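Anyone up for a design puzzle?
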């Protein structure tokens, strides 16, 4: 998929179904790099609203708190979604734990700029002291799925991030097909494309996400949600201001989407009600909290917290996803190439060629000894 910034990560998986790319190599070790001055303290402790309880967010010309601008979630790449068990119910890192993360974040940024070439990784410039993005339940872990949630999970496909086989369009995810990553999947930080643009007028707020270029227009005029029979991938959003916080309640979701990274992971049902809270806490930070209340899929509601941040010169370019999307066609043709390899091996009494089963086996792997590497884009 073509993008002025980069392309869809599934293009990295065009050979996923082909024998040559099997895991045998380890990712390069990150250099031990001292954290920058900006990373030297937890970024949340530097927010203007944290430092000065009387700080007020900037206003639009009509008096609403201003959320306008270009933002991203790159700074949260080092924070896990679910809290590691060792932290129990603790939401914040200790001083030493934070310094360890800051060094790791700096090392990742250093690697991305000076070493990594396979994909364009976009690292943030700050480090946060959160132990996880999930903050409720207190354990920082997503609740278990209901039986219906388990049934929905069984219908989800990993697409080009999985082992195949690839025979029909239904074998590919909504992400592979340039349809959507969902609301939460469009904000949870990944290796690139974490930008969003927020624009406002007196009666609505619009949020455009960089990757897959979904745009949500959120009315603020008190209108009711659409009829329950209308279902949408991004749901039907309605917003209101509570003091300096924009509260967005979204219903009318389909049950074909998920709420994890890149729109994958655990599913949601049609009963999902998503309540988001956007609070400007600094000239360069918006605190974001979202509560997933979905009794159809989860045994309890759960909440995530992110800090949406800005950085100099970050721009959101057009994400021309459909125009250059070769993921589906190449994976289907790659599957046919693999079938021919299997048939040829059987005819000759040779071992059946292996196939990679995980994304990292293609990204970090090298061919097994004696295997032939070929370029499927060249029509071999």
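Challenge accepted. My sequence:
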């Amino acid at each position: 998929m073509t993008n002025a910034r980069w392309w869809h990560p599934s293009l990295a998986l065009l050979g996923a179904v082909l024998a040559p790319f099997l895991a045998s190599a380890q990712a390069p070790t990150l250099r031990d790099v001292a954290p920058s001055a900006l990373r030297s303290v937890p970024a949340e402790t530097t927010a203007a609203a944290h430092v000065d309880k009387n700080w007020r967010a900037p206003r639009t010309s009509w008096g609403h708190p201003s959320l306008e601008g270009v933002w991203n979630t790159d700074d949260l790449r080092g924070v896990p979604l679910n809290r590691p068990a060792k932290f129990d119910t603790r939401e914040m890192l200790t001083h030493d734990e934070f310094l360890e993360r800051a060094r790791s974040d700096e090392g990742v940024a250093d690697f991305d700029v000076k070493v990594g070439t396979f994909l364009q990784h976009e690292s943030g410039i700050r480090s946060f002291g959160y132990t996880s993005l999930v903050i409720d339940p207190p354990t920082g872990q997503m609740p278990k799925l209901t039986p219906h949630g388990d049934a929905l999970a069984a219908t989800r496909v990993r697409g080009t991030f999985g082992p195949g086989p690839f025979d029909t369009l239904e074998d590919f995810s909504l992400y592979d097909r340039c349809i959507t990553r969902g609301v939460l999947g469009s904000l949870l930080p990944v290796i690139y494309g974490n930008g969003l643009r927020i624009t406002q007028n007196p009666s609505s707020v619009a949020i455009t996400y960089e990757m897959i270029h979904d745009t949500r227009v959120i009315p603020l005029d008190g209108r009711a949600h659409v009829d329950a029979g209308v279902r949408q991938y991004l749901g039907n959003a309605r917003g209101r201001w509570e003091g300096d916080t924009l509260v967005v309640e979204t219903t009318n979701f389909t049950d074909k989407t998920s709420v994890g990274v890149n729109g994958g992971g655990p599913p949601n049902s049609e009963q999902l009600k998503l309540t988001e809270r956007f609070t400007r806490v600094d000239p360069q930070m918006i605190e974001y909290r979202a509560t997933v209340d979905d009794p159809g899929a989860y045994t309890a509601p759960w909440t995530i917290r992110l800090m949406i941040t800005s950085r100099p010169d970050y721009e959101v370019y057009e994400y021309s996803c459909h125009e250059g999307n070769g993921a589906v066609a190449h994976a289907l043709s790659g599957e046919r190439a693999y079938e021919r390899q299997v048939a040829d091996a059987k005819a000759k009494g040779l071992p059946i060629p292996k196939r990679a089963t995980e994304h990292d086996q293609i990204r970090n792997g090298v061919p097994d000894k004696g295997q032939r590497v070929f370029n499927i884009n060249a029509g071999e």
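A detail worth pointing out: The longest strand covers residues 273-282.
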